[in-house]
Design a protein that fits this description.
The chain is of the alpha+beta class and 92 residues long. The protein has one domain. 30% of the residues lie in helices and 21% in strands. It contains three helices and three strands, in the order αβββαα. A three-stranded antiparallel beta sheet has the order 1-2-3. It is globular, with a radius of gyration of 18 Å.
């Protein structure tokens, strides 16, 4: 069988079925990341830049998150200048 006659699998771009819908479930996942000390990749600047960070604290009401700074000072400064952080966390 040549490559031209092989079937092509189309990947469904609708990933909404995998999104966490419940605020309670999102907080549960975040607490798990915090407790295990998991590293989180935070993308910003439309995905051109990123930081490797960890979640240090979640407020008792679940509305505020405190992250450890990344190791790159320049990227930390760039990330703090973006509105993307607030937009993303407002979904929590």
């Amino acid at each position: 069988m040549d490559t031209a006659s092989k079937s092509v699998h189309v990947i469904d771009d609708d990933l909404s079925q995998y999104e966490v819908q419940s605020r309670t479930e999102r907080l549960y996942i975040l607490k798990g990341l915090q407790e295990t000390g998991s590293q989180i990749i935070f993308y910003f600047n439309h995905g051109y830049d990123f930081l490797l960070i960890s979640l240090v604290e979640i407020s008792t009401d679940g509305k505020s998150l405190i992250f450890e700074y990344g190791s790159n000072k320049e990227m930390n400064s760039k990330a703090l200048q973006t509105n993307q952080i607030r937009e993303t966390l407002n979904k929590v």
